[in-house]
Write a structure and sequence with these properties.
Blueprint lengths: L1 E5 L3 E2 L6 H19 L3 E9 L3 H9 L4 H15 L9 E4 L3 H16 L3 E11 L4 E3 L17 E10 L5 H10 L4 E2 L1 H11 L6 E2 L1 E3 L8 E2 L2 E6 L1 H5 L2 H4 L9 H5 L2 E6 L3 H15 L6 E5 L2 E3 L2 E2 L10 H8 L1 H11 L6 E3 L1 H31 L15 H18 L3 H22 L1 H4 L6 H22 L4 H10 L12 H4 L30 H12 L16 H5 L3 E11 L7 E6 L3 E6 L7 H4 L3 E5 L5 E3 L2 E3 L2 E2 L1 E5 L5 E5 L11 E2 L1
Parallel strand pairs: 1-3, 1-13, 2-3, 3-4, 8-14, 13-14, 15-17
Antiparallel strand pairs: 5-6, 5-7, 7-9, 10-12, 11-12, 15-16, 18-19, 18-21, 18-27, 19-20, 21-24, 22-23, 25-26
Helix pairs in contact: 2-3, 11-12, 13-15, 13-17, 14-15, 14-17, 15-17, 17-18
Length: about 650
Amino acid sequence: MTVYITTPIYYVNAQPHLGHAYTTIVADTYSRFRRLCGDTVRFQTGTDEHGDKIIEAAARENVEPREYVDRISGMFLNTWPLLDIAYDNFIRTTESYHIKTVQHILQKVHASGDIYFAEYSGLYCTGCERFLIERELESGKCPDHQVEPKEITEQNYFFRMSRYQQQLIDHINTHPEFITPERYRNEVLSFLSEPLEDLCISRPTSRLNWGIPLPFDENFVTYVWFDALINYLSGIGYPDGQEFAPFWRGAEHLIAKDILKPHAIYWPTMLLSAGIPLYKKLHVHGYWNVDETKMSKSIGNVIRPAELVEEYGIDTLRYFTLREMSFGLDASFSRDAIIARKNADLANDLGNLFSRSVAMIEKYCGGMIPAAETADGGDGSLMESGLKMLSSYRLNMEEFQFHRGLQAVWEFVGEANRYIVRNEPWALAKDSSQKKRLAAVLYELAESLRLLTLVLKPVMPRTAAKMQLGLGLAEDDAMMQNLDAGGKWGLLSPGTSLRRIENLFPRSETAKRGSTAEDTVKQQCSAAAGKDNRKKADDSAMISFEQFKDMELRVARIVAAEPVAKSDRLLKLTVEAPEKRTIVAGIALSYRPEDVIGMKVIIVANLKPAKLMGILSQGMVLAAKTKDEDGAERFVLSSVAGDAEPGSRVA
């Protein structure tokens, strides 16, 4: 199977920002994933360098347009290696081969009678570089740029876009996968329910000369969208290049929602007019906001990729953007959010799983993968969970649901961490009769790490490479190059020597308190005890008996438990104390839901209720924090020694 994945070519009136980075990370991840599936892939990105806004931007800097576009395009070229973007082609619309292809298609469409000359009066938005119609305006302004468009009357060339309206509607209806997610397909069909106007595709050289000249009239240059969209063809050698036919069949475009109309309406009608088959899919994602506010140069909250890489690391940024955004919806970036993901998901969950598993294999097996004489470590849960994860991961990655694919991966990470707690390898090592079981448990963990390494290769290539090295696997190991070949259980060879690597993800300090569920609980507990939340100089400060009496501790029976969606660390508990209440507890890495049902625990009953992951938590379960023999932290729930009724006060 051939796959041709493209980003939009980025307009060089601005420097690279988080939105550009996200789109390109998604395309790179999808490209790596498809290669892991054994497909032949071509990945293209680039820059769009013509139009009114380029002239304006160059004039502001008092330079010629060519000098300006060379500099900004160079910024994109220099940014992508910082994010480990492995594209196959970087195209610029000022390159000669692209100009030649644009003029070839213009001539072809003109010869077919789909381009005509006329005078037109319309509302022109410089920011959009196109004429708008009344129904697109909001309170008389362009909805994207919040400025009133200028009324312009001039003679121009027009493309008979309306001629292909019904053909496009029919194609969208018969190919539901053509535009995804579904909300954007519906948006396009809604727009097409009204008569489609023809598209102005030229600008007179008297007004704009920075563009591709029309091949049939040198007094006009090509409208920037008719120029830019054709990059998807010129980049694979249309019409005669060897790469065109095989790759165009698998063309998948990736865009942000602000350029939906040009890609979902202009582009397919242009292709239909030129007699070129339509692309396979259009994938549309939402916006990145910053602390719930849209990125804007005017308010100074534009996020630059290079700064994020320097502060948090490449793979942390890649993971965060893919996990945090539900593809198609808007998402919000904050430094607290990325640090919380790094500390919880990467350092605590993945990093801790890898380091503690490897440490135990080194300690108990001399640093070599043990031979497991039994099929599993005793309950088969890791093998079953691993295969289930692989299936969910593959399905969601194919459907551009990267956050769900990674959620499935981290559910498996959580299961592997809980597997360690349940089987206690440090205890098995003390019993000579449990030697075979110890070997089976450690093999299960090592094989789990191998599967995690495999599925993380498209998302976090550097981290996956470190993990592969740490597991003693060669860079070109065949089972780590293909998801079909490597996505099976039990392929890790006993006797393989591990290698020491540095910690995968050192923890980072949060920018402010209260950004995570754990911080919220700590603040609540401090409030219930009558403490000041500010850090005290003396950590051993005493509290009075009156302050202690303010805390209402009760015995509670856990009657129901379930995982919290989108969290590997939280369980939703229903307790009787004696009334029923819901408590969210961060014990999922130490206890499965079925492990805690029926247990009698101690709760803080008068803690102010608070929402954690959207669930109202009405109290706090007390637990002791301890460490396993290998140094990993775990929780042990606090209880009472005798038979106390639910609701009994603890004094």
